[in-house]
Every structure is written in C-alpha cells, then in structure tokens.
Amino acid sequence: MTKPNMNYANLKDSYLFFRIAQKVKNYSALHPDKKILRLGIGDVSLPLCKSVITALNGAVEEQAEKSTFHGYMPECGAPFLRQTIADFYRKRGVNIADDEVFVSSGASDELGDILDLFDKENSAFVIEPAYPAYVDANVIAGRKIIHLASSMENGFTPDPDEEKKADIIYICSPNNPTGAVFTKEKLKKWVDFANRNGSVILFDAAYEAFIEEDNIPHSIFEIDGALTCAIEICSLSKTAGFTGTRLGYTVIPKALRRFNMSFNEMWVRNRTTKTNGVSFIIQKGGAAVFTDEGQKEIKENIAYYKENAKILMRVLDECGIEYTGGVNAPYIWLKCPKGLDGWAFFDLLLNEIQVVGTPGEGFGDCGEGFFRFSTFGSREDTLEAADRLKSLLREIL
Ligand code: PLP
Predict the structure, then answer these.
(1) What is the pLDDT of residues 18-70, one digit of tens each?
(2) Nearest CA to 332 among 160, 119, 175?
(3) Cα 278 to middle of ligand 1, angstroms
(4) What is the dihedral of CA 16, 19, 21, 27, to 10 degrees?
(5) Whole-model pTM?
(6) Which member of 38, 152, 239, 249 lies 3.0 to 4.6 Å from 209 by CB, making a disulfide possible if both were Cys?
(7) Which among 175, 167, 159 is positioned nearest to 118, based on CA atoms?
(8) Which of 94, 80, 51, 83 is nearest to 299 (CA)?
(9) How much distance in Å is there from the Cα of 48 to the middle of ligand 1?
(10) CA of 307 to the centre of ligand 1 (A)
C-alpha cells in the first residue's frame, strides 16, 4: 500500500482563521444589522499602483503579437528582473550579483520550497510568536523543531542562546505578528552565531518596505558575515499589493556553502527541475515596482497603511495598553487588557464593538494573552474601529 507522508498527521489543526471565520459568521447570523469591522486580515486593501498596471497592460499587449510574444521564462527569473532587483540591493549598498537573485511566485511558496535544500535531519529553529508556515513546513518535512519563545521583555527580538543550537534558523524582521524589528547590532549577533555553528538563517524580509527608522536593516546582507550564512526571502505582496498577483524574490549568495555544496547552485538545479519560471506578464509588472515612479507610488500606499497604524496606536497610547509594532511594520501586537487571553479579548471585541482582530495564540504558545491588529484595512473602517475601541477600553479599564 502506498504510504503517504505521515508527517501530515503531526500538524496541529490550523484552527485559527477557521475559528475566527466561524465566530464572525455566527455573530453576523444573530445580528445581521451590525456592521463588523475587520482588522484581522493580513491582506492589502489598496489596488496595484499605476506604474504596475501600465507595465502589466504593456506586457499583455506584447503577448498578443508574434514579434513580441514570450513563451517559457527562464526558471530562475527573467534577466531583466533579476538585474533590476540586484540593482535595487546595490543602490542600498548591498553588493549582490544578478544571479544571486531568484524570482519566485511569492514568499509562502518559497518558504516551503526552499526546504528542499536541507537534509531531513537538520533541526529548524523558530523564534515565536511566528508566522505559522515556518513550523508547519518543517513538520511536513519531518524535522525537529526548536521553539524559542520571545517576550515583551526582550522586545520580541531575543538574542541567540549558545545552549539552543539549530541548523535552520528563521528570522522575520519586521515581524509578523509582533511588528518588532531586529537592529543591526541584534542581527549581527545572530549572523555571528550562525557562522560559528555552521547554521543557515532563513531571513524573511516580507515587510522590509515598512521600515522607517534608521539602524534597522532592510536586508540581512547589510550585516557583515551574512553572505556566508543566510538566505533572504522577500515578497512584493505587502510592499506593492501583489498578494493576488503573486511575485517574490529570494537571494542566495554564492558564498553560502556547507559540506562543499553551494546553495546557489543547488537552487538553480532545483528551480530548473521543479518550475518553469514565473509569468512574463507578472515579472514585467514586478519590475515596474523598482522604477522611481513605482517606488513613489508604493510608498504612498504604504504611507496610507502607516496612517491607519497611527490612528490605532493613538488609542492604545491613550488607554495605556502595551504594544509593539505599528512603526516599522503593518501589524500592532498588543497585550490584552485585564489579563484576558487572546480568544477572550477576541470575543469581547466581536460582541461589544464588532471589531475583528487575531488572537495571539495563533502564532505559538507564547502568543497567549496577546492580540494582533492589521493596519491593511480601509481608512474609514480603521477610524470607526479606533473610536469603538476607545469607548470600550475606557469602559472596562
Ligand atoms: N512571510 C510573512 C512573514 C508573511 O506574513 C507572509 C504573508 O502574510 C508571507 C511570508 C507570504 O507572503 P506571500 O504573499 O509573498 O506568499
């Protein structure tokens, strides 16, 4: 009999979004007249910017003519886009070569696929609270997972611990869900730790475009020594509204080698075996993000979400609620008032003010007692949610 990958049986049920949807559905059925405001989702609400749409349309037209039509794209990415992305890094002072950039269909796909590069016996080290895919992708691969709980006390950016070694280390900065960021000094400690121990860091930079403070690295390759111990996974989903359009990129330095194997060469081999490249049309749209006009336009959209963050942070400040994030990230991670756990706070917000967020428990055990607001909603909804939240917090505190 065919034996399936039995590791799937080891996955914890992904109740989180299902349970949220069920609760909201039940509430709506009982109270059809109530307007529910959703600050839970991690999806964007603004459309693609003008430069991207123009480029996408132009690419569609090219596909309509025999003389400009494109068939298969190179598996590792179209040269025009690999160069554009490498130039973007180089302009920021990070010297990587075009062929160290790989174009992907998004960070999620890549976070799963990249595990092909690692032996099953490697352990994976996840700093929690964390984006759930890090744990689940490694459970599916049958890997041992080492959880490192972070906390408000260390700003959700813990230092490495020589007692807790691992082969694959996940670092997400700016972080989903906590919104916390690793400074250059903090990240340097992890880079040194990884080089010392021969580990590889998988650096998730999906939210780098939201960084506004100095001394916060946008790329791990701003840190000395990272070229020999890190892979960076990035995405245009939140940077430029590509959640439904799908485009990302991964940087694998040629200097990253273990056991005399080059991760860059292995990834070329992997891509040429397992993909036939990302759509020409989408790659054209993606390249427009990196033009001056594209950068200006995406920054306007990011500024919109940041204003949403300010509106919510103002209420939390006024009510004395502790939180992280909101400044360099589109998420606000707050300590639930009155010692409530995340689900109890969820119920309170839904029942009393019809605001939906995400309970911290969904991001690892140490997320208990915390709650995540996303700032990707509309301005109107955010303003109204902030007003309702203020009234509720004043009443209960
Ligand atoms: N990494 C983090 C930390 C995320 O929060 C997300 C999406 O929410 C992703 C990766 C996946 O992004 P993509 O849309 O590129 O698959």
Answers:
(1) 889 999 999 999 999 999 999 988 899 999 999 999 999 999 999 999 999 99
(2) 175
(3) 17
(4) -140
(5) 0.97
(6) 239
(7) 167
(8) 51
(9) 17
(10) 22
The protein residue with its alpha carbon nearest to ligand 1, atom 16, reads: 108
**195-225 per-position pLDDT tens digit:** 999 999 999 999 999 999 999 999 999 999 9
Region 382-393: mean pLDDT is: 98
Candidate of 128, 131, 178, 245 to mutate for ligand 1, largest count of ligand atoms within 8 Å of Cβ: 131
Sheet with 248-251: list strands edge to edge. Answer: 101-104, 248-251, 230-235, 200-204, 168-172, 123-128, 144-149
Q: How far apart are CA 274 and CA 145, in angstroms?
A: 26
Number of Cβ atoms within 10 Å of the Cβ of 146: 16
Residues of the chain with pLDDT > 70: what percent?
A: 100
- Does the pLDDT value for residue 15 go beyond 80? no
What is the rounded average pLDDT of the residues 312-328?
98
Mean pLDDT across the stretch 121-143? Answer: 95
120, amino acid identity: K
Task: Give residue 108's identity as a one-letter amino acid code.
Answer: S
